[in-house]
Amino acid sequence: MEKLNILRHLIMSRYRRFKSRAQLLNWQQQQISKHLDWVTQHSLFYQAFRGKSLAEFPLMSKSLMMEHFNQLNTRQLDRDQLFDCALRAEQERDFSRSICGDVTVGLSSGTSGQRGLFLASQTERHYWAGYILGRLLPSLWAPQRIALLLRANSPLYQTVQRGHIRFHYVDLTQPLDQWMAELTAFDPTLLVGSAQALQLCAQEHRTLSPKLVVSGAEVLTPSDRALLATKFKCPIHEIYQCTEGFLACTQRDGIMRWNEDIVHIEPHWLTPDKTHFSPIITDFRRRTQPIIRYQLDDVIAVVDEQSDKCNGTQCAENQLEIAHSSPVVFQAIGSIAGRTGDLLKLPGDNNTSVVVLSDLIYRTISLISDEPLDYRISQINKDCIQIESDQRHEHIAKALQQLFKQLHVDVSQVHFEYRPRPQWQPLTKQRRVVNQWLS
Fold it and tell me: Which of 122, 287, 313, 394 is most buried (most C-beta within 10 Å)?
């Protein structure tokens, strides 16, 4: 029965078709309406909103969710007990202990300063497993060996350990030589991990030849993508998954798109010309821990409509399947450009303050060298930028100065400090642009 449930969700994820965006949005609204009706009957926190439209529900944040966790979840589970359970499982590296009844308990990484809880029932685990496999697998029929380079394992990832699909959890807390040897012996066809863990793997491996590499959990900059493509010589895809849900992924046309058949996205615009926003998400499939109008602190760049089309090798590889599908109706993502807390804020002309978006910095640095650069750009006070890199400090500084001038930063007030390249740790998130001054 479990295997059939996963297979059913996999088929829906991969083959559900919408003839137009209007049809998708109409269907989505029906799903949201049913979901809100159920949640308001089962969550004490949301009872007062029964019968109201989605727009009338309050905005949710991590701090608000943790404060009202006991009333918000629909299983009457206690936040403190769940935290103890998840922490013990993580500390003892025994993730089978992170299950409470039929509910899997996990912890977020805490990059924003506060660790959050996420819950998934057995039904939700089956849905997640089928959905993500339907989205990511290059083929449904060929045997797949999927390696997960993760800070912490979870029973969630073991849900699909079935038949011709095998998973291998790479414990990044173990010595590098140990987990690289295990990974080499496993010989994955799919390699999934954070941008940082994948870069480390690319630099250390000798014989791995995955058919697909999938990056998630961290920003994948153009330089990072170039390194992975050069080392692995296969398509590089992305997933946008966090505590709050499986939000987006590279689709079979090679373009990263929102998973709008499971999540609804509202933009909170960060720029007057609407080029960047923070997403407000509603996951209308999650019931144990409702995610309704949850505002993330991520920065999303809007895609250039002219680039929202199938092209290149990835398109050619999927040409046959795409040719028989309905028109693509899910909205595309330009890029995941970092966190709102890491936007640089520099002195501008006429005593103004200028916000510098992280993706502009990624793009600028990617253009100064044919070779991938390892770097970190940090604002350490109002007028000081620290450049960490083993090479091209002056080239990076000059490129940033040119970018700042274009954005009307008063560059006469900005000075640079140089440091050796950053020492990354696989257990902490890689952030190439950091605002230490305002953090």
Answer: 287
Residue 300's closest CA among 247, 236, 367? 247
Same domain, 257 and 293: yes
Name the residue type at position 108.
S
Query: Quick one: the chain helix, strand, coil %, rounded to 5?
Result: 40, 25, 35
pLDDT of 416 reads: 96
Band (pLDDT 50/70/90 cuts) for residue 314 is: very low
Q: Scanning the structure block, which residue is given the tokens 């954005």?
A: 407
Residues 46 and 149 in one domain: yes
Burial of 1 (0-12, 13-18, 19+ CB in 10 A): exposed
> pTM, whole model, 2 decimals?
0.86
For 53-72, what is the mean pLDDT? 95
199 touches 236 (CB < 8 A)? no
* Same domain membership, residue 349 and residue 223: no
CB contact burial 374-409 (16+ within 10 A = b; e otherwise):
bbbbbbeeeebbbbbbeebbeebbebbeebbeeeeb
Is 314 in a helix, a strand, or coil? helix
